[in-house]
What we know:
Elements: E1 6-8, H1 14-26, E2 30-34, E3 39-40, H2 49-53, E4 58-61, H3 69-80, E5 84-88, H4 103-113, E6 118-124, H5 137-142, E7 144-147, H6 159-171, E8 179-183, H7 191-202, E9 207-210, H8 213-222, H9 227-241, H10 251-256, H11 263-273
Parallel strand pairs: 1-2, 1-4, 2-3, 4-5, 5-6, 6-8, 7-9
The protein binds NADP nicotinamide-adenine-dinucleotide phosphate.
Amino acid sequence: MSNDTVLVLGATGKxxxxxxxxLRLHGTPVRAASRSSEIRFDWADPGGWxxxxxxxxxxxxxxxxxxxxxxxxxxRAEAAGVRRLVLLSGHGADTWGDSAFGLDMRSAEEAVxxxxxxxxxxRPSNFDQNFDxxxxxxxxxxxxxxxxxxxxxxxxxxxxxxxxxAAAVLxxxxxxxxxxxxxxxxRALTFAEAVEMISRASGLSIGYRQISPAxxxxxxxxxxxxxxxxxxxxxxxxxxxxGVIAGTTDGIATLLGRTPRTFEDYVxxxxxxxxxxx
Length: 278
Ligand SMILES: NC(=O)c1ccc[n+]([C@@H]2O[C@H](COP(=O)([O-])OP(=O)(O)OC[C@H]3O[C@@H](n4cnc5c(N)ncnc54)[C@H](OP(=O)(O)O)[C@@H]3O)[C@@H](O)[C@H]2O)c1
């Protein structure tokens, strides 16, 4: 147990709230921050950053969706006496080549990895929880998920494993300095296989249909997304279809000394809670 205070950014989000809960249970003082949190933190308002960083030893960084601000944040963190940064990035971030996807995460990595602080980068693959806490939940509840993804599988990871990894790195000073962990689940699945498992476990009739990236972009715009945001998500699928990030890694085993949770485990948990019912 340590008395060092950890600043958790994105504290109301899918990873931040899980990381904060683990740290509190561990006895680590937590400052949980985001735009809507009691402790307010806004990537668009650097004027408020210094007071949020005051007295902080380590930061869990969920980067902003635009390239740039993390450079200034790292400089402020260094000036405030922060010692450690743990950045949430994405699987295979240095293999994305000329893809327009992930410029935000690559910029954040550059800032964190270029800092004088003790840093660690976590690079998880697509989250299991995208199917119930995010983008794919509404289409599944409506009976069909349509995405520009075909035969190339994705090594979906359970966010409980991502949070276990982040909490371990944040509470083990020195052990993970300068390390980049590629984090995946134990097995890669196609989206069609994932949806079939969700349909079987929930007992609901839910189908999967492959569409083109252009059709997906148009569908998101029709749902009210901006053209830029829709294109960004579609670019992620184009990148995934190249197959370079389809493999599994031993990141969870290296960090936590155990195998990652299976997609089956995730699916039965969520199906039992009734989350995919209309
Ligand atoms: N989904 C995936 O499969 C996947 C896989 C790998 C990596 N990632 C990366 O994971 C990150 C998202 O993490 P997550 O899923 O834990 O978060 P999330 O569930 O998307 O929630 C976003 C969090 O950031 C906060 N936030 C949003 N805008 C902000 C701003 N301008 N200033 C300060 N805080 C802001 C939100 O809280 P407020 O609204 O209260 O500010 C919320 O706490 C992204 O960088 C994404 O690229 C995602």
